[in-house]
Write a structure and sequence with these properties.
By secondary structure, this protein is of the alpha+beta class. Helix content is 49%, strand content 20%. The protein contains five helices and eight strands. It has an eight-stranded antiparallel sheet with strand order 5-4-7-8-1-2-3-6, with helices on one face. β1 and β2 form a beta hairpin. The longest helix is centred in the middle third of the chain and has 73 residues. The termini are far apart. 13% of the residues are buried. It holds the Pfam family RskA_C. It comes from Lacibacter luteus. Keywords: Coiled coil, Membrane, Transmembrane, Transmembrane helix.
Length: 257
C-alpha cells in the first residue's frame, strides 16, 4: 500500500538493521497466526443451498468448471495484518529519523556550548585588559596633574648601592602633607617581602605606608606626612611592614631640596 519510494526505504532499513527485520518478521508471524485462528470454514450445506438456487444451465456450467482455479479471498484480518506491518515499519523509520535529529541537535548544542565558553573566556580576558589599560591611563593622568601642580614637590629617591640601578619618585605637598609615590622603577619585591616608605625628621624615621605588591606600576597615595620632613627612604621589609625600619634593608633614599 506504500508508494515505491517509502517501501524501498523500509526494505533498505531491514537490510541495514537485522534487528528491525527480525522484529518485523516476528510481528508478521504473530498477525498471520492470529488471522488463521480467526478464519471461519463454511459448512457443507452452504454449497448445497447455493447450487440449488442456481438455474439448471448455470448448475451444469458450475459442475463443468468445478476444477477451475479457486482464488482465495484473504480475510479482513489478514489485510489489517499487512497494514499493521507497514505501520510498525513506518514507526521504526520515524523513531530512527527522530533519533538522528536528536543526535544532530545534541552535537550542535555541545559545539555551541563550547563556543559560548570560549567567547566568555575571551570576553573576560578582554575586560581584564581594558581594566588594566584604564588603570594605567588613570595613573598617568594623576601623575601629570601632580607634576603640573605648583604646590607639589618632587623628590627623587636613588639607590643606596652604586652598582644597583633602581629609583622611585616622591610627589609631596609640604603644606598639607599629601604624599604620593611612583614606584614603577623599582624591581618586583621577592616573595614574602614588601617595600615600605619612610619619611625622616631630625633623623627619626616615621612609617609612610606600604607600597602595593601587585600594583607597582601605578601612582600610589601614601600616608600623610608631618610638617618638616627632611628625607624619604624605602626599605625592603617582611610583607606587612614593621614599626621601625631595618637599615640593612635600605633600598633607595633622597633628601628634600
Amino acid at each position: 500500500m506504500l508508494p515505491p519510494e517509502e517501501a524501498g526505504k523500509i526494505e533498505a532499513l531491514c537490510k541495514l538493521f537485522p534487528e528491525i527485520q527480525q522484529e518485523v518478521d516476528a510481528i508478521a508471524a504473530t498477525f498471520e497466526a492470529g488471522a488463521m485462528q480467526m478464519a471461519v470454514t463454511p459448512s457443507a450445506s452452504v454449497k448445497e443451498k447455493l447450487m440449488a438456487s442456481l438455474p439448471a444451465k448455470a448448475g451444469m456450467v458450475a459442475e463443468e468448471t468445478h476444477a477451475a482455479k479457486v482464488v482465495e479471498m484473504k480475510p479482513v484480518a489478514a489485510q489489517r495484518s499487512a497494514f499493521s506491518k507497514l505501520a510498525i515499519a513506518a514507526s521504526w523509520i520515524l523513531l530512527l529519523v527522530t533519533g538522528a535529529i536528536a543526535f544532530l541537535l545534541y552535537n550542535n548544542n555541545e559545539q555551541l556550548t563550547d563556543e559560548v565558553a570560549k567567547l566568555q573566556q575571551q570576553t573576560a580576558s578582554f575586560d581584564e585588559q581594558v581594566a588594566q589599560l584604564n588603570q594605567k591611563v588613570s595613573s598617568y593622568e594623576l601623575y601629570r596633574r601632580l607634576k603640573s601642580d605648583a604646590s607639589m614637590t618632587s623628590v627623587m629617591l636613588a639607590s643606596v648601592k652604586p652598582d644597583v640601578k633602581q629609583q622611585a619618585e616622591i610627589l609631596w605637598n609640604k603644606a598639607t602633607g599629601e604624599l604620593y609615590i611612583d614606584p614603577s622603577s623599582l624591581p618586583p619585591a621577592p616573595k614574602g617581602k614588601q617595600y615600605q616608605l619612610w619619611f625622616l625628621i631630625d633623623g627619626q624615621p616615621t612609617d609612610a605606608g606600604m607600597i602595593s605588591l601587585t600594583d607597582v606600576a601605578s601612582i600610589q597615595k601614601m600616608k600623610q606626612t608631618k610638617p618638616g620632613a627632611q628625607m624619604f627612604a624605602i626599605t625592603l621589609e617582611d610583607e606587612g611592614g614593621k614599626p621601625t625600619p631595618d637599615l640593612t634593608a635600605l633600598v633607595v633614599a633622597g633628601k628634600v631640596s
